[in-house]
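Lab meeting tomorrow. Please check the following:
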Amino acid sequence: MAAQLRPASGAQPTAQSVIDTAVGLIPDARWASVTIRSGRRSFETLTSTHDEARAADRLQYELGEGPCVDAATEVGWLRTGDVGHDPRWPTWGPQASRLGVSSLLSLQLTSDDQPVGALNLYSPEPDLFRDDDEIAFALLYASHAALALTSTRQIEGLRSAISSRHVIGLAQGILMERYDLTVDTSFALLRRYSNVHNAKLARVAADVVSTRRLPSGAGADGGGPTPGTADPG
């Protein structure tokens, strides 16, 4: 199932496939969204099927309270059939109810046994997500969804790393030709500039490729190293 949920490329299309399929397969789910952790207590909605789901998610992030936030950080899964009166979320619940949310099932998404987000299933109708078989299926589905999303993000990370390494290699070639540097010295110079100016190495390399020279201040004379004598630092 995880392979079927993962389109050709991209976390966004994969997440969209996850939520579209969830709404189609899980009877009580009317709307769906994917919450991703972007920090210890920082979250974002990767995608949603409806504006109501995204708005309910965003309200949780702003308040720091709600089933999506709890499922994405600590609890494996959470359900409620009466959002507006659930004592676990006294601030978020009534406000979410005014958005049209009545029932919700939030399922933790994990990577290497660590929580990375949540699959959120919403309904405007009360007292849903009570069937044990439906919840068991939703939990199984969430595990496949997590695998698909994690795999996609790993592939994207690998592609990004390969692309960055290619740009760095191009920048080294430019510096070697322009300033008569060795392979090791050209890389050391890029790294030194990156460290001194707190800039990502790939960004520095991209600037070199674009301008055909090191940024101002990279060398002793402010314009670049002395040919053949650059200090690798």
Summary: The chain has a mean pLDDT of 84. Strands lie at 31-39, 42-48, 77-80, 103-111, 114-123. The chain has eight helices and five strands. The CA atoms of residues 45 and 58 lie 8 Å apart.
